[in-house]
From TrEMBL:
Record-linked InterPro entries: MFS (IPR011701), MFS_dom (IPR020846), MFS_trans_sf (IPR036259), Proton-linked_MCT (IPR050327)
Ribosomal protein keyword on record: no
Occurrences of domain Major facilitator superfamily (MFS) profile (ranges): 26-426
Pfam family, any one: MFS_1
Name of the featured protein: MFS transporter
Keywords per UniProt: Membrane, Transmembrane, Transmembrane helix
Length: 434
């Protein structure tokens, strides 16, 4: 049953008691579609490495640098984006971000120099994607849901994987048959196509439509928070004084290094090094996306019921073991052991997100979304480092094997770090100090 504002409030009337579906679920659905529509940018980098190397004779390290700039800005923008959403609203920030993504992706069609790839794909797409990163999902979940937060976080996190599933086979086919330029145009059009849905259907706060959050009690919409940049930095300073922040940031940096930085960026060219067709390797990554949806939604369900620290330790340990076996599984054709790795890795891909967000919320209360934005920044810095170092290692050694083994060892470290996060929550008040 929908919960509406009490009579003592001045909120506009919401749906009556007969309403069966809370408006929060429609907002979550819009957010899901939006994340899917913008997911094409995350599917493309691994498909661009070989075509750009062949056409422009740019080294893999140079191309990896552009991808690393993209990943780093994606993360570093997130905490400021969360604060900007508090200041200007979710709808405005996300709609503008989609336009920036579309512009940066489209501009790459006319590039001729490496610095243009860094500017268009690295800077513009990085800034745009960072403005609607996982902090977007955390903000929507924190505002619109009190119950089922873990589940909704898992579903919205899985939206990125769903987008990968939708776009990756198509983009691989376009690159293989028509070149990389039509693929980048497709990404641009996809981002543009969902912008109207955000502008027309997204609402910033339950109080905008006279409702309580799903499973909670009605609260007035807070006044816009001025000084978004100052607030993001103050939250960082406050969080940095606590041990859980550094443990969460460290584990999530390893998460980014072993997923976006390594597998998403370098799996396709690594498989191609072993004689596998690009379309087949891209198809395997799409299968990762299928099982990522299952694993992340399940992780959200687990997060509502089990200790988040233990969940993280199990996820990182299993991921590390799987990466140690990958170098011996790659071959010219797709074989059952490699399919098993893809399924196993897919289930674990971003299963770490719901328990990480839950721990940020547990320790930092109403500033949890911004703290998670900073934790996400560390995720992307880790991803950026490995995106560059992976390409550089391939240039220097002719193989990716060293990077797979190193990432597996780092995941073991992350599992140990997760278990050392203390359980006693901080007070739920803000971290800001006057």
């Amino acid at each position: 049953m929908t919960q509406t504002a009490p009579a003592s409030t001045a909120a506009p009337p919401g749906p009556g008691p007969s309403a069966r579906i809370h408006r929060a679920w429609f907002v979550a659905a819009v957010a899901f579609v939006t994340i899917i529509g913008a997911a094409g940018f995350a599917s493309l980098p691994g498909l661009l490495i070989e075509p750009l190397h062949a056409e422009f004779d740019w080294s893999r390290g140079t191309i990896g640098l552009a991808v690393s700039v993209n990943l780093a800005l994606y993360g570093l923008t997130a905490p400021f984006a969360a604060a900007l959403m508090d200041r200007f609203g979710i709808r405005r920030v996300v709609a503008l971000a989609l336009l920036v993504i579309a512009s940066g992706s489209l501009a790459t069609v006319w590039m001729t120099e490496p610095w243009q790839l860094v500017l268009f794909w690295g800077v513009l797409v990085g800034l745009g994607s960072g403005s609607m990163a996982l902090a977007f999902a955390a903000t929507v979940t924190n505002r619109w849901f009190t119950a089922r937060r873990g589940l909704v976080t898992g579903v919205l996190t899985a939206a990125g994987a769903s987008g990968q599933l939708v776009f990756l086979p198509l983009l691989a086919w376009l690159v293989d048959h028509h070149g990389w330029r039509p693929a980048t145009v497709t990404v641009s059009l996809a981002a543009l196509s969902v912008a109207p849905f955000v502008w027309l259907l997204m609402r910033d706060h339950p109080a905008d439509v006279g409702l309580a959050p799903y499973g909670g009690t009605y609260v007035e919409k807070p006044a816009p928070t001025p000084g978004a940049t100052r607030r993001a930095l103050r939250v960082l300073v406050g969080a940095a004084r606590t041990g859980p922040f550094w443990l969460l940031a460290g584990t999530f940096a390893i998460c980014g290094a072993s997923t976006n930085g390594l597998v998403k960026t370098h799996f396709v060219p690594a498989a191609h090094d072993h004689g596998m067709p690009v379309t087949a390797a891209a198809g395997l990554l799409a299968v990762v996306g299928v099982f990522d949806v299952i694993g992340t939604v399940a992780s959200g369900w687990f997060t509502d019921r089990f200790d988040s620290r233990r969940l993280l330790a199990v996820y990182y340990a299993l991921r590390g073991v799987s990466l140690l076996f990958l170098p011996i599984l790659l071959a010219p054709s797709v074989r059952p052991p490699l399919v098993f790795f893809i399924v196993f890795y897919g289930l674990d891909w971003v299963a770490t997100v719901p328990p990480t967000i839950a721990l940020c919320r547990e320790h930092y209360g109403e500033d949890g979304a911004i703290v998670f934005g900073w934790v996400l920044a560390s995720h992307q810095v880790g991803a950026a480092a490995v995106a560059f170092l992976g390409g550089l290692t391939r240039d220097l050694t002719g193989s990716y094997d060293t990077v797979w083994y190193a990432s597996g060892a780092l995941c073991a470290v992350a599992a140990l770090m997760a278990m050392t996060i203390r359980r006693r929550p901080r007070p739920a008040g803000p971290l800001l100090v006057q």
